[in-house]
Amino acid sequence: MALEFNLKQSEDYEKQAFDAYSSNDLKKSQYCLMKAAEYLAEVAKETKDSQLAELRREKVRKLLDKAKRLPELAEQAKAKPPKEEKAAQPPSSAAPADGPQKAAVDPEIRGAVEALIHTSKVVWDEIGGLLETKQELKYALGMTLAKRPVGVTLTGWSNFLLYGPPGTGKTLLAAAISNAVKRTDGGSSCFFNAKIAGILSKYFGESAKLITGLYSIAREKSPAVVFLDEFEALTSSRDKGEQTGAERQVLSTFLSELDGLDKKGTEGVYVLTILATNRPWDLDAAILSRFEKKILIPLPDLAARREILEIHLARKGFQIEIDLARVAEMTDGYSGREIEAFAKEVTNRMIVDMNQAIPELVTKGIEQAMGYEIKLRALTLADFERARQRVQPQTTPATVKRYTDWRDSVTR
To answer: What are the extents of the domains in the chain?
Structure first.
């Protein structure tokens, strides 16, 4: 009961702070923000879910920071030119024959959403293994981008859930899609990359509006891809009664936006949504039912580990005395990220061994260091064995089994 009471108090004070700020009562707004932070800090202490607790602690910090900076923010708001009145526009989901029209989104929300537009240099070949997953995503993306035959209704996959242990390539896959959807005609990218935890903690009283704006602008820039990472931060507590009103509102808004993409009036609008999570079992049925494709991104097998090692060693110019297949056997149970860290440990230790004069050169001056050429040698079995002692896999066999059990349970 104490947790629910403190949640309610925090929400009430947060709303009062927003109302007071809107009425130019900065003193009251500051007081309410600090009280909201005080009650939310108590909630964080009582929250059993570690990720949700950290999310709430982060929001406490944001609330206190906003209270401190409120006079500055108010001055900035006064300095902004008044908004021009605009003629009413039809809803952004209505797509005229010549393509989606520009969505009517508040300029501040539009700025926050457009800051989520992301491009990367990651290409598909830089992701070791995951051949089947890459093919599925390419197919879905191609279906999203390609023109439809006249008179034929095609329904491709539009919502993907990528789940699996940390470091297995979920974000890399999203980065490759980011690169794939960047425009070559001079236009902007149509890939939106957002962390749910960041949205909840950063945008005071605006999280739900940000989700609405995100999908409005995604429809406007159609075809588009929306990538939402760490989604379990939003839904993990839903069944435990620990969600704040703001968290419930964001989730409800997100589900409504997904449903809206399937309704009439969105012809010619193609938005691909990809969620990533390390804890799929924390997602409730309302989320799972809207994601037709649920793809386990597992720990890399032997062939994939060899390919990842080649990406981080051979393709970067390092000479290796032993067969990479033998090294791949040494990394059984490692995630892709851990193999990358393993490769860095190997190369960095070799460089330290071969260039022990560098610290003294730095002491003598920057010119000495800049004139020095780093010495390298071929990597040996001993280098890899030493690195293996320092970089250990973090995903246990029990955790791997939990992912496969969950996969089997949702595909029955």
So the answer is: 2-74, 107-296, 302-394
